[in-house]
Design a protein that fits this description.
It is built from 3 helices and 7 strands. By secondary structure, it is α/β, with parallel strands linked by helices. The protein has 2 domains: 56 residues, Signal recognition particle alu RNA binding heterodimer, srp9/1, CATH 3.30.720.120; 57 residues, 2,3-Dihydroxybiphenyl 1,2-Dioxygenase, domain 1. A 4-stranded mixed β-sheet has the order 4-7-6-5, covered by helices on one side. The protein has a 3-stranded mixed β-sheet with strand order 1-3-2, covered by helices on one side. The termini are far apart. 24% of the residues are buried. InterPro entries: Glyas_Bleomycin-R_OHBP_Dase, Glyoxalase_6. It comes from Lentzea alba. Pfam families: Glyoxalase_6.
């Protein structure tokens, strides 16, 4: 027997707005029933679990213990620029001179995530 990951839960201050940001990041839709003011929302990923946003009263106070790593279909650096334009903030540069490494960004509520090299950049 095994367990299947149903969703990745993200506590947040504004579930709908943070889900809209991640919908733009992933290019995937919100659940059709989600609307502004909802305390629980979902981004429906193409395969696997959904991103589940749960509105909580307490603010984020420290570094994430778990985070998402994104592999873009464009170059890593192009994706970093796109995400910054959507409202992400730059946290740390872990890119190396030889092209390896990643960039650490944060979503509008401060949740860190990484942008990796694309598949073509790794080839």
């Amino acid at each position: 027997m095994v367990s299947v990951v149903q969703n990745v839960a993200i506590d947040c201050a504004n579930a709908y707005e943070l889900a809209r940001f991640w919908s733009e990041v992933t290019g995937r839709p919100l659940h059709p029933d989600d609307k502004p003011g909802d305390r629980e929302t979902e981004v429906q990923l193409a395969d696997g679990p959904v991103l589940y946003f749960n509105q909580v009263p307490e603010p984020k106070t420290s570094k994430n213990r778990i985070h998402l790593c994104l592999r873009p279909d464009t170059s890593r650096d192009q994706e970093v620029e796109r995400l910054l334009g959507l409202g992400a903030t730059f946290v740390a540069d872990r890119r190396e001179p030889d092209g390896t490494g990643w960039a650490v960004l944060a979503d509008p509520e401060g949740n860190e995530f990484c942008v990796l090299r694309s598949t073509s950049e790794r080839a």
